[in-house]
Structure formats: structure tokens, C-alpha cells
DNA sequence: TTGTATGCGTTATCAC
DNA sequence: GTGATAACGCATACAA
């Protein structure tokens, strides 16, 4: 009953204290708690009572130490915030939860000492998923070689390090062709390929698709130095300033696209009549935008889940090979296709 | 040179291995690594060489065990995603970094077993910051009593648990009065007070301010069951459907407000002419919206930083008392005040 | 069914 | 300057 306060500086009880109070050995205490071997009912009761009396709970620090395992897996992102990361995390957590493993999250925020941060982080988990542009291939390889099992996410596999990624290529090509079919002549890609291997692949494939039909594409002179709507808006403003002739803006993700649409409006251009805008990811916002955003669906939740599954295979010593998940172009209104607005029934307007 | 692979199942080397190879005792190895006592230069070199040869790095697990400290602090959010959390985390990390502590992040996602999750989490850190509506006061108190030092964030202090919060009250009152001055009669608050103590306070104060001048306010019949733009949009659509007479919508945060503005447009209403919209947080997006969003600035980065500072005080055994940070109403265009659009200079329109 | 003894990889306290 | 050795709190092989 006299559970001592843990913050009052009172030393926390150990197995020895519980064993002594219960009049048994520490082995028995451990057995009761872990349920690792049969224990007489009355003994078990005595142990439980003693543990409760002292407010004892086994030290995770000690447990992890003796088990030589953290009981946790980690996932590293360049940033947090935004629907993409949230959903990938959700998928990752779902799988980790099934495996009784805790999830640790690290965001490198493009800090210069990212390698160091990830290295520190690696010492706190049993295995690691590294996404996009956080640390370079050499660092990842080193990590996998002398720290812990590693899986890459949204990024190409490295020697000895399997990867989980979405098939960006086909959709990028398809999306580019679709934009061309709408008659776009001057097409701009908005997003910084150097910020993410995934984005780079999209950029490469889109550019190739356009060159194939004799079109040219410019990466925007004003790059979006980030993946959020604020960057997209600023970049869009610069892009549309001075009456530059731009037919279509293909964005690195949906948030950037959202910003570009607002920038277009602010600059007096209509979407899609004056300028086509496309996104990437198919985030929840995409369907709600005005016009609804044409984009590419990525299975974000599954990307996280599969990365976790792969990581646990590695931890189990099972063979693990890279996986590629399908993507799909989602045609909505921002590309110029006819669209059904979300079912709005305002009194001042007729249905639809 | 023959650094063994860590993933190949080869057992990682220990101090003993290094000591043996260097021909010294483990005490000396430890001394060299920690630089805790003078060691002869040639001995040090030998140790370093041996450590390098074996690719040895001291086990964090063992270190944490003997030090009885994780070297990490944690912060618990109801969710991730969105600018609010990102910036709070940034502030928290900045301070933790100064103190050489790692940062662990947990999102409870409104899961039913949140208490359990946070409890598990608490065992992995030396101290904890708990924000908003993650676990109830009783759980927090229990956590602080028998696990580790705890600080509350964006939430009232509990007995024995200090808190860091923003002064929502004054700004809520001021904002409400401002909306009234614009002639709004039918005002709706959009956001679920039950989702966050912070939001509840805003709702209470806004309602009080309106009653004080004989106005009434209704919490929206369709609550925004979340803090993102998607929820705001849906709630807005419902709100504006059927020609409901609504003068002003005061939102729980900027993302919801963004969704409401889009919903208003989709429903054929002009902002702010037909309906006033206000937000909360002053996220980066607020200034970019059309019209620019009238909102309340919260020092998000500092909230995180101060929470961390308070936590470290607690860990140091220093006295720590709650802190309240100021907020400020930011008047922009969405309330009906004249506004300067961001400097856009499209060719098709004159300046401004 | 229970107890004894040992190991896990460090750090720290002695004595030399 | 250096080496032996004792913790730290738990799990577990082996005895009884």
C-alpha cells in the first residue's frame, strides 16, 4: 500500500527487494512476472502482493540490457508534418504493433549532422528504416554494416540494404502524356529533385516522356525548396510573375500543387483553363481542392507497413528482398478533364 | 582493419575484447574512451588502435543500464502532421539538443490504449512532456508519481505536474469582440472542444465574450472531428448547406479555417463579404490564404522549448513552476478588415 | 516447484 | 598510471 513516490528521489525497488519481502528467490520473482515457468499459486500470490506493495515494475533498462535488445524499431524521415509522413508512420506503427515492438521516430530536418543523429538513433533501436533524403548511400551502407539491420524507404536499394518503394516511373510517364494530350506546350516541373530520390525519379521520367514527343520541359527556375504548400505558393508566385508563358505545372507533391493553385489565382490565372496543375501522392486534400487535383496515388500506409515487415524479416534472419508497390494516376479536374465537384448543395446555387 | 559486420550475426565486441587485444585492463579501456582519468600516451594509442581494429563502440544498452539513465526525453502528441506539432517539436529538440539529450516522439492517434502506450513510452525516457488530449489528468498524475518527471504542454497543470501553455483567454476574447465589431450576428465556433483542453478554453472564452454583449454563439452542429483542412472542409460544407444563415465561423486552428474557406467558396459564399472566417495558431499558411487569414499567433517553437527547459529543471531537481506564454491577435483580411494582398505582380493585373 | 549461481557490458572504487 | 573487482537489475541454466 505504501507505494513510494518515484520522483521523490527514493531509489526504485529491484527484484531483490521484492524477493526478500515475498520470502522467495529472485528467480521466482522473475518467473512470476515473465510467466516463464510454473509457480505455485500461493507463491505467485505472495510475489504479486510484494511487487504491488513496493510498487515494483521490472526495469526496462535492465531488461533490454540482458536481452541485448531494445524492443523498438526506428524510422527516419527528412521531416515531419504533412500527410505523407503521417500515413507512412501509421502503416509502420501498425505492423510494429503486431510485432510488439515500440516505434521511434526521427526527423533530420536537413541538419548538417544528420549522419551523427541517425547514428545515435540507431543505437536506440533493433532495426531502422531510412527514408528519402536523410543520409547518403554510403552512410546507410555503413549503418547496415556495423550497427543494425536497415531498410530503405522511398529510395533505391543499396548493396545489402533492401528497399521498399513505389513505382513512380510508369505513373510519371502516363501523367506527362496526359498533360500533353491536354495540349500543354510549356510545362514546368516544380519541386527539387535533389531533395528526394523519389522526386528525382519523377522528374527524370516526366522529362523523358516529354522529350519523347518532342516537347521540352524545364525544371522550374524557382525551385520549391520544400514539400509544403508554403513553398509551392512562393515558387508559384515567382513562376507566374512577369507574365511568363506557362501551360502546365507538374508538382512534386500535392501540397506544393495546392500552393501553386493559390498562387495561380493570386496571379490572375485560371486553373485549368490558363494553366494545368498536377500533384503527387493523392493526399486527402487533393480531392477537395478547387478544381479537384489530378495526381498520382501512392499507397502510403502500405509503404510504411511493408517497410516494417521487411525490417522484421531482417531481424528474424529471414531473407528479405526489395519490394515495389504500384501507383496509379488519378484524373480529376486540375488537368483540364471535366470534373464533378464534390456534392455541394448551397441554397444559392442549383445542384452541381 | 578487419571490422566485422554487425549484421552477419557476429557477436559485437566488448571492452574485454578490446582490452585483451590492446594488452591492458578493461578499466584502462574505459578511461581512454571516457577520458575520465589520465592515461599514458602510448597506452591510449594502443587502446584506440585495438578499438578501431575491432570496430568497437561501447554498448548504449550497457551504458544506459549502469548510468540508470536513457539519455533521452520524450514528447507525446495526440497526432503528428500539421505545422503546429512540427514547430513545437523543433523547439523541444533545440533545447534537448543543448542538453545533449535525444528526443523521442510519440503520437497516440486517439487510440483507446493511449495510457498503455504512454506508459511504455515513459519507460524509454528520463522525462516526458505530455501535450493536449492524449491521456487524462489522473493518468498524467500517476505517471509523474511513479514513473518519471512530467511536464504538461498546451494544457492546465495538474497537482505536482507543471505546465507550459499559451494565454488563450485574452486573445480569444479580443478576437471575438473584433468579429462582433464587423457586425457578425450568427457566429459559429468550428472545432471540437473535447479534442483539446486548449481548444476548449478558446471556445469558452469566445462564448463568454459574445454573451457579454448579448450575442449568442453556437458550437457548430457539425463538429470538425480533427484539426486538419479536410475536416474543416467537410464541416464547412455541412455548415453552409441548406442556406443556413452564418455570419462568421471562428475555427479551432488555421488548417480548419483553410478548409472552411474552401467550403465557403464551393458553397457560393464569399469570404469575408458573406461570411467571416478566423483561425488560430498563425501557421505559415495563414498569411498566404485568400483572403489572408485573421488568426491568433501562438509562440509554437517557444512552447516546445520552454516545456523542454522545464523538464530539464525537473530532472535536475530544480524547482519548476508553470509558465504561460503570450499570444496575439493577428488581423488580416478574412475578418473583413482591408488587406494588402501579398505582392503579386501578374502581367494581367495591375499591382495589388 | 524452487533456489543458486552466473552472465550481460559498462562505470567506478579501490589498491597498487 | 594501471589493474583487479564490485556493482547495476534482470534472465536463465543448472541443481536440488
Q: What's the helix and strand layout?
A:
Two copies of one chain form a homodimer.
Chain A: H1 15-22, H2 26-34, H3 41-54, H4 60-67, E1 72-77, H5 83-98, E2 102-107, H6 114-122, E3 127-131, H7 137-146, E4 150-153, E5 163-166, H8 168-181, E6 187-190, H9 197-212, E7 217-219, H10 229-240, E8 248-251, H11 254-266, E9 276-278, H12 284-288, E10 295-297, H13 300-315, E11 323-325, E12 328-330
Parallel strand pairs in A: 1-2, 1-3, 3-4, 4-5, 5-11, 6-7, 6-8, 8-9
Antiparallel strand pairs in A: 10-12
Helix pairs in contact in A: 1-2, 1-3, 2-3, 5-13, 8-9, 10-11
Chain A binds a DNA duplex (16 and 16 nucleotides) through helix 2 and helix 4.
Description of the structure:
2 copies of one chain form a homodimer. Chain A is elongated and about 85 Å long. In chain A, helix 5 links the parallel strand 1 (72-77) and strand 2 (102-107). The first copy, chain A, folds into 3 domains: 15-67, lambda repressor-like DNA-binding domains (434 Repressor (Amino-terminal Domain), Orthogonal Bundle), CATH 1.10.260.40; 72-165 and 301-325, Rossmann fold, CATH 3.40.50.2300; 168-299 and 329-335, Response regulator (Rossmann fold, 3-Layer(aba) Sandwich), CATH 3.40.50.2300. By secondary structure, chain A is an alpha/beta fold. Chain A has a 6-stranded parallel β-sheet with strand order 2-1-3-4-5-11, sandwiched between helices. Chain A has a 4-stranded parallel β-sheet with strand order 7-6-8-9, sandwiched between helices. Chain A has a two-stranded antiparallel sheet with strand order 10-12. Chain A has helices spanning 15-22, 26-34, 41-54, 60-67, 83-98, 114-122, 137-146, 168-181, 197-212, 229-240, 254-266, 284-288, 300-315, and strands at residues 72-77, 102-107, 127-131, 150-153, 163-166, 187-190, 217-219, 248-251, 276-278, 295-297, 323-325, 328-330. Residues 341-352 of chain A have low confidence and may be disordered. Chains A and B meet through helix 4, helix 5, strand 2, helix 7 and helix 10 of A and helix 4, helix 5, strand 2, helix 7 and helix 10 of B. The structure holds a DNA duplex (16 and 16 nucleotides).
